[in-house]
Amino acid sequence: MQLILEVLRHHLLSFTRLNYHTNAYGVARSLMALCSLLVILGNTEDYFYQADLYGFVNSPWMVTNAYYWVPPGFYWLLNGLIALVMLAVIVGIYPQYTAVPHWYFTVCITVKTTVADGGDSTAAILTFLLLPIALTDNRKWHWQPPRPYPKAESWKNVVSGVAYWAICCQMAVVYFLSSLEKLILPEWYTGTAIYYWFLDPTYGASSYLWPLIEKLTANPYLVGVINYGTILFEFGLACTIFMSRRARLAWLGPALIFHVAIASFHGLFSFGFAMYGAIVLYLWPIERPFWGR
Fold it and tell me: Which residue(s) pair with 13 in the sheet?
């Protein structure tokens, strides 16, 4: 017990020395806001009608959704407001004030959308977990160099550090469950799932890639490599939480390529941007700026 308390004390002390208000977490916020902006701008109002993907339409909680108070036919007004909020987040102005609207409107979109590609729900969870970091960020925009806090305000670093590791744990669980659930389905453990996913009428490969897909799926060995490689890669991503910072950074490039491939093959571009932001938060040490100091 004493050892556990000593480890916790060590981590809390390390949190006080690290400043998480860098442009790295700004990159992640902007990418997730871009995901929501693409959903708003790339779909008609029908996309938001009578969606009940999460069982909220007839739930008393639905009154908390901004779309509940807007009559059909006028969603464009609300979508315009949401687009302005997402643009403000992408630009990076006043993260302390845009954090809550960013999270709230992301949840509103997630509940009302008629197509579940996973990007909206990922962004909704991560924007919530980012709240402690963003709400303690008093910079004018999130691209500025981090400001050193006096000792009396070191609690901001602790709060941000705990939130950051909560995000890392969330992402590790996401990848672990994704790899584990694939092993339960016969199509995955027999090595044929990729074939069916490529040809699925809803989530299958984009039409412009069909000539390439036909060649890929004609080779059973290549299909098997992609199938089992996906499971192993996602399990590896889950395990990176136990790795050193240098080792985790080595996974950043392959992880981004992995999600770029998913977005490109399946046409899930809004999902892609949400996952790019998630990967940055998970594998890049956000106390270390992407550029500058």
Answer: none
**Alpha carbon of residue 216 to chain centroid:** 29
Q: Do 124 and 116 touch, CB atoms closer than 8 A?
A: no
In the chain, the amino acid numbered 114 is T
Tracing tokens 């009154």 back to the chain, one arrives at 63
Q: 162 Cβ partners below 8 Å, 6+ apart?
A: 15, 132
AA identity, residue 136: T
Contact call for residues 193 and 185 (beta carbons, < 8 A): yes
Question: Which amino acid type is present at position 203?
Answer: Y
What confidence tens digit (pLDDT) does each residue in 142-155 have?
Answer: 998 887 776 657 77
How far CA 148 is from CA of 10, 23, 83, 131, 141, in Å, comes to 20, 14, 32, 20, 16
What's the predicted TM-score (pTM) here?
0.85
The percent helix, strand, coil of the chain (3-state, each to 5) is: 75, 0, 25
